[in-house]
Specification:
There is one protein chain. The protein is mostly helical. Helix content is 74%, strand content 0%. The protein starts with a helix and ends with a helix.
């Protein structure tokens, strides 16, 4: 759910800012391919599909921590779901942009404004909280 919400916000923000929805998702492929984050879809939309796969994998990675640390409480208490999902999303942002090597940064920042980047990570948090509450 977190992957879907954050990708949807990235698509919407990019459509508004760039006139091309998939640029931030395409950019993620630089983690696999190296080089600068590409804006184009690639042959047969390869960059979009690979970018979504990498993005979803990263969201699952953070979901494991979310569930292990906060899952039971988040399912019982809506405020805990919101606070804990915000903590995981903030941690993901910090790791993405201040811990990992530039090669492993998402690359979406190349095609989204700072405000849109915040919106993407907020949508990530909303996705984790919503999933916890739906699993209640």
């Amino acid at each position: 759910m977190a992957s879907a919400t954050s990708a949807a916000v990235a698509f919407a923000c990019s459509r508004h800012e760039n006139g091309h929805a998939a640029r931030p998702i395409n950019a993620i492929t630089h983690i696999y391919d190296g080089g600068t984050p590409p804006p184009h879809d690639g042959p047969n939309r390869r960059n979009t599909a690979l970018g979504l796969a990498i993005h979803t994998g990263a969201c699952i990675f953070w979901a494991v921590f979310y569930e292990a640390l906060f899952g039971k409480r988040a399912r019982r208490d809506p405020q805990a779901a919101i606070a804990s999902s915000a903590a995981i999303a903030a941690t993901a942002y910090f790791v993405d942009y201040y811990v990992v090597h530039r090669r492993f940064r998402p690359g979406i920042e190349a095609y989204l404004s700072r405000g849109s980047l915040v919106a993407v990570y907020a949508a990530l948090a909303v996705g984790y909280a919503a999933a916890a509450r739906l699993r209640k």
